[in-house]
Amino acid sequence: MGLIELARAHESWGQLDKAVAAAMDAVACGEASQARAELSEALTTLGRLYVQDVRLDEAEPILERALASARGLPEADPRRESLIGPATVELARLALTRRSSARALDLISGLTLPEPGVGAPVPYRAEAVRVKIESLAALSRFGEALPLAKAELIWHEARLPAGHPSLVRTRCVLASVLLAEGRAKEAAPFAETAADSALAALGPTHQATLDATELAATAWQAMGDLDRSDAVVARVLARLTDQDATHLAAILQLRRTQIAVSCDAGRFTEADDLFEETQRAVAALEPLGPSIRARVDRLLDACEVLRESRRPK
């Protein structure tokens, strides 16, 4: 297994710190060999992982470098477009994460994206379309986002098994558009189906499982069904153990969701108890490695900010 494939494998297992380490090794190998294509792919992988880990300031120069490296290939090189596409998509994802939706949409609009099933497969197409849909929704262009999201889901459902990560993410995108438009009652079943299928097929630490679970909990919360919101998160937490450092980041991400739900319901004592329980779980696993330590600290800080910002003054 190559270093990039190893990074992707660790990412799929929820081991983000190991994924980052493997991607950094791949970048070093690409630099040492002066292999422009391999370097671009490694940089794109590392940049994507940094975006996922909310290390946005670190991600941007890496992704810009990945794109520049890909563009530096001869135009006749068949790898050129296949490397420009993923780097552009990840830069658009970064822009969307920073709430620069117009910038994200501009980046995606510069790519040639065929209709699904038309012509040769474009590996990054599905992710590019998802970013486009989310960007349109963030700009309140629901009349464009919703038909596109529905069409993508129909196409994916006809071809992929229920727990496939691409289908899970496509279902979540439709749910997020509906939720953004204030249609939580329609969004919640899509999000919960995505969460349940991801948990069964991908496991509790996969990022697609965690993202779908957060979305489902948020949708049920928006409907005022806090018990259903809690239950969605509890199903995943039941598969995780706070005795395992590899599970810790996943637990913290879900605790953040639980704290948000509790605060929004005015259950601040419950939110405090959840935060203190989380702190105890982290302390019990000390010392942590430097990479997971940094991620845990970011998630703990997010939980603390969330808890304090929603408390009545």
Task: Characterize this entry briefly.
With 313 residues, the protein is mainly alpha-helical. It has 15 helices and no strands. The chain has helices at residues 3-12, 16-33, 36-52, 56-71, 79-97, 101-109, 125-138, 142-157, 165-180, 184-202, 207-222, 226-237, 245-264, 268-284, 290-309.
Helix content: over 70%
- Quick one: CATH class of the domain at 1-137? Mainly Alpha
Mean pLDDT: 89
In N-to-C order, the SSE pattern is HHHHHHHHHHHHHHH
Basic shape: globular
Judged by helices, strands and strand pairing, the structural class is mainly alpha
Number of helices in the DSSP assignment: 15
For the sheet with most strands, the description reads: none
CATH topology title of the domain at 1-137: Serine Threonine Protein Phosphatase 5, Tetratricopeptide repeat
**Uncertain segments:** none
Output the radius of gyration.
Answer: 20 Å
N- and C-termini, Cα separation? 54 Å
* Assigned CATH superfamily of the domain at 1-137: Tetratricopeptide repeat domain
Do you know the CATH architecture of the domain at 1-137? Alpha Horseshoe
Strand percentage lies at under 5%
